[in-house]
């Protein structure tokens, strides 16, 4: 594994440097850089147009920015027990009945593996409410989602090389990058047909069959028709993805981030129904 310093946060912890990978080239697809702006007054225009945006400077006052590294989480949240996606070789494992395969992990053991450079074979995602309250106070709340109904907040903690397969979610999403570097490839909802989702009756109807780390153009010939976006988030960046935006993520170093999901009004009934459907079918998606 080669090391490539500029990929991690500005004041990196030496232990985390061990985890950086060289950024692989972007796939040969029509991808434009995501627009970057300093804190627009609101996100309505981007939500309506179905376009992503990287917001700069919105996390300036958050103590967690650059502070929440694997060793900091090991020190302050080791006893948190939560679910992790099973991720053999860095790619999610699917289960026909329940969707994503999950396993229970202790955050301290997971962080220790990342610091030691050992494979985690999993991707930790934890509701923020599971973290010690002192830690929670180090996070802010972006004003774009403050007070929204059904607001959900999650910690996303991954090892270098971890991949989140291309998929969409119903709620709007704000992703706050706290440490490390993460690459995103994004497609508007209207590109659905060119992204080959799994069948509607499958356990993962919101997931694309395409592996963007090695796109198979013979199996997916319409993929190059899809017009998409790409960006690399560094500590302090806030990425806005409107409802139903397709997104793929690749951790280019050990990465810690927090996301904020909230359903727009017109999605609310669908979001409530889809949560009930997931519970009914026992789906982990
Ligand atoms: O950060 C990632 O790896 C994926 C995040 C994601 O899928 C989401 O926030 O909906």
What does this structure look like?
The chain is an alpha+beta fold and 285 residues long. It is 16% helix and 28% strand. Strands 2-3-14-11-16-9-8-4-7 form a nine-stranded mixed sheet, with helices on one face. Strands 1-13-12-15-10 form a five-stranded mixed sheet, with no helix packed on it. Strand 5 and strand 6 form a beta hairpin. Helix 3 (70-77) packs antiparallel against helix 4 (107-116). The longest helix is centred in the last third of the chain and has 14 residues, at 268-281. It is globular, with a radius of gyration of 18 Å. The model is unreliable at 1-14 (pLDDT under 50). The site of 2-oxoglutaric acid (AKG) has 8 residues, from strand 11 and strand 15.
Strand order of the largest sheet: 2-3-14-11-16-9-8-4-7
Main sheet record: 9 strands, mixed
Oligomer: single chain
What structural class do you assign from the helix and strand content? alpha+beta
Shape: globular
CATH superfamily: Cupin
Under the CATH scheme, the architecture is: Sandwich
Q: Distance N terminus to C terminus?
A: 31 Å
Q: What is the domain total for the residues?
A: 1
Task: Count up the helices.
Answer: 6
Write down the CATH topology: Jelly Rolls
Bound molecules: 2-oxoglutaric acid
CATH class: Mainly Beta
Which ranges are low-confidence, i.e. pLDDT below 50, for 5 or more consecutive residues? 1-14
Helix content: 10-25%
Number of DSSP strand runs: 16
């Amino acid at each position: 594994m080669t090391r490539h310093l500029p990929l991690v946060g500005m004041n990196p912890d030496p232990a985390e440097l061990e985890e950086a990978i060289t950024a692989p080239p972007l796939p040969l697809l029509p991808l434009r850089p995501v627009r970057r702006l300093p804190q627009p007054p609101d996100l309505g225009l981007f939500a309506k147009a179905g376009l992503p945006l990287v917001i700069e400077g919105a996390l300036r006052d958050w103590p967690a920015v650059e502070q929440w590294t694997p060793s900091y989480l090991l020190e302050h949240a080791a006893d948190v027990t939560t679910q992790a996606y099973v991720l053999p070789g860095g790619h999610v494992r699917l289960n026909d009945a329940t969707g994503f395969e999950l396993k229970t992990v202790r955050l301290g053991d997971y962080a220790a593996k990342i610091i030691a450079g050992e494979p985690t074979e999993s991707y930790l995602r934890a509701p923020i409410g599971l973290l010690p309250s002192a830690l929670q106070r180090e996070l802010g709340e972006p004003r774009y989602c403050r007070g929204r109904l059904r607001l959900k907040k999650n910690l996303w903690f991954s090892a270098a090389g971890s991949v989140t397969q291309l998929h969409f979610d119903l709620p709007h999403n704000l992703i706050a990058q706290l440490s490390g570097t993460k690459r995103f490839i994004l497609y508007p909802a209207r590109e659905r047909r060119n992204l080959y989702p799994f069948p509607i009756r499958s356990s993962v109807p919101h997931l694309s069959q395409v592996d963007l780390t090695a796109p198979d153009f013979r199996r997916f010939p319409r993929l190059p028709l899809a017009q998409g976006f790409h960006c690399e988030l560094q500590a302090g960046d806030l990425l806005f993805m409107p409802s139903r935006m397709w997104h793929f993520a690749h951790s280019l170093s050990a990465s810690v981030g927090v996301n904020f999901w909230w359903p727009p009004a017109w999605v609310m009934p669908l979001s409530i129904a889809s949560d009930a459907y997931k519970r009914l079918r026992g789906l982990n998606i």
